[in-house]
Write a structure and sequence with these properties.
- By secondary structure, this protein is of the alpha+beta class.
- The protein has a single domain, classed as YaeB-like fold.
- It contains 3 helices and 7 strands.
- Strands 1-5-4-3-2 form a 5-stranded mixed β-sheet. A two-stranded antiparallel sheet has the order 6-7.
- Strand 2 and strand 3 form a beta hairpin.
Length: 109
Amino acid sequence: MQKSILLSAIKKAVKEGRVRITDHADEEMAKDKRTYNEVKETISKGVVIESYADDKPFPSCLVYGRHEGKHIHAVCAYSEEDKIMVLITVYIPDADKWINYKKRKKVKG
């Protein structure tokens, strides 16, 4: 699935409430003091910065967005069969590991 098609399907599923939040994503949101509504807004306005087409059981992607000035990354998968978005994890990206929060810095060594 192309990343633009994947993101479109993810955004539509989020808008329509067809979402499954993994326990890991729920824990990470709590740790970073983020609510699902903040993450939902981030995804609905976000852009795909990495695509993981071969992920199993569903293709997934890393979505970048912002909420109230905070940079947020969300790893989202999409089940074509079930027509649901699976929120795998959410986190505040580390500025030391990202260029403009959108491109991974190369690891030295």
